[in-house]
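Quick log. Single chain, no ligands specified.
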Amino acid sequence: MEFPNDENGSVLQSMQDAGMDLNREYNVEFWHVFKEETSAQEMERRVSALGIQTEVFDNSELDESDLFDDDEDGDDDGESFEGDDEEMELNEGFDVLCIVPMIPTHAGITEMEQKLGKIAESCGGEADGWGVLNADESEE
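-> predicted structure:
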């Protein structure tokens, strides 16, 4: 299967190359970052009203070792939040996780990412990526 030459296409290509069957449903996780708890809770309220499973995480309560496996290439993708001339470190702010059961097509992922991203922005946050972190659980 061919994918567009963009970030979502690259992720989908990597998933396919890893042997994932992209014709079946997975729990796709869309992450959003916020500086303020009330903003994160507002996004959670709005997205939950759409029937999408959500959860808010207080980053000050998270242990970095629980979030990231040892990364062989040494990058720190997703470990900071940039916006409004400030950078928020990993243990600051709040994350909103939105879990959407779906077949991971480029169009479907892009559409959902944009839809949730607009909600996040209207609540004072921003999108922070997506993924299928535990594909085996989707099979149960």
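The two ends are 26 Å apart (CA to CA).
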